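note to self: dont lose this again. the chain is below, predicted strucutre after it. 591 aa total, dont forget to put it in the shared folder this time
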Amino acid sequence: MRTLPLLVLFACTGEKDEPTPTPPPLGMTLAEDGQVYAGIARVDITPTDFETYTDLDGDHSFDGCMTDPAASRTGCEEPFDDLNGNGRFDAVWIAGFGSARAAQGAHDPITVTAVVLSLDGEYVALVGVDALGVLENRIRDTRDMLQADGFDRDRIVISSSHTHQGPDTAGIYGIDEDLVTGIYPPFVESIPEAIYDAVATASAGMVAVTPSQGAVFMSDLDPAFNGEPFGGTNPDPSVDGGINDIRDPVIVADQVLSIALDGADGRVATIVNASGHPEVVGDENSELSADYVGYTRSYLEERHGGLTVFLSGALGGMQSSLGATLPAIDEQGARVLDADGNPTWLDDSAPGADWEFARTWGTLVAQASEAALTDTTPWTSLRVRHSDFLIPVDNPSFKLAFQVGLLDTPDDYVIQDSSCPGFGEDNDLFGCIPSASWVIELGPVTFGTAPGELMPELFWGVPDEPAMVDPTLRPSDRRWVQADSDCVGVPYEDCQDTDGMVGECDCLKHHAVPYRITDDAALGTIESMLPGTFKAPIGIANAYCGYIVPAPDYNTYVSVLTDDGDHYEETNSCSGSFGPLVLGAFAAMRE
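---
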């Protein structure tokens, strides 16, 4: 009998219980108090218990047959250990330097490292993976898993380091002549869960931090990083900022950007963004490794504490220290001098220099990241936005890899209907890969992401130098190492879709005149379209579709089925429209 007055009272006053607030996803800290919070975690994904072989000739290449464990048949030269008894070589193929390089063990861990950041209710997860490139379908699966637990799927950026000493995550480094995929299923299938675990652990362990940040160009740090043509003292004339760019024009991505996140008990996390292929161990190796990236992380973690996440930069061109000469350093990171106090040099072609060269470059990158940390501007904002686009797959290399089942992407992840522009009408079009670019603002630092190996000029622009415009100057210019004098009077447009020659001009050595990144006046460099004081690219982010080449310099003739000359990047690019799509995405986000 007492319930009726209570119900009447409730109806009259409108009073009711306040709704229970939705808790932050994965237990993260989302306080609106002007304080930056960070958490970081690492998951080891190194393959174990995989099958190996007997390298009888010591060439680091499997010369046996996939279904002959004892190498008993003619032409099957090397046996393998058939651990699971299925009669087939279940190898972990190393992603780099051609096919058939089967792993014999692990030199150092292959890992996933995630840092989660929040400020005033906004948040983002930045993840570094020791992988050639995690394809979009695996990224999509990861984002689905996180979204199911309330994590905004558009607030995670996953960057592959592109290590050429790690397991093949694309599928193109198995045995190409036999169309054997390079995918080791247990490894690639573990990646989404490992990323989820790293993000979840980092989210649950967030603490208040004080950021510091900054960026340096290695070419400005020390003349020892530059050859004589680039104003330095390095005995290798091709080196600029410690990088040997093998595609004309020589335009290097030698910026190292760093963010340190310090808590009450010391360093929580360090974020390092740098370019350069993690391939400097070279091809005479059969052990899995993060390459120089592992040394960079170890150096910083041993000296400053916390964990370091490495985010790859602009790798196209191709950016690499392989083939370069570096100033020698000892195990403590100090320069090794001769009796007269002059620098000594480390050449990666010296016998046994492989791991020492990787340690040296990794340490030098780590030291550059330390030198970059000069800015203590407080963060007043954290902002994440993205722009979606579809990447057409029309390059013969990628089409073939899809069609024969080499790639780690089932057909149902590829858009093959009318929503893919031109599908069903363009016979060269296999389908479209969904992708996007992100802009991530962290106080004075802004990252712009690209789903592939970005050519540096797309981010920073083309050097303002005469030879970029005047082709007659190229044969003797420091940035045009492979220029063909017979091409001086040939418009590059005549070379873009040919069998390799126009008159006496070798089109595979020729490049755009004037050299430029776009013919669209509405587009600029990515750097010019980003806000912030410190700006950097994050490469191979949330997808991997090969190299991203400026459209005016893209050679449509080149493919895996042809010679490539100085246009290797086109053999491993989804499309000639990749560059314009990425630039267009940043233009759409420009304010």
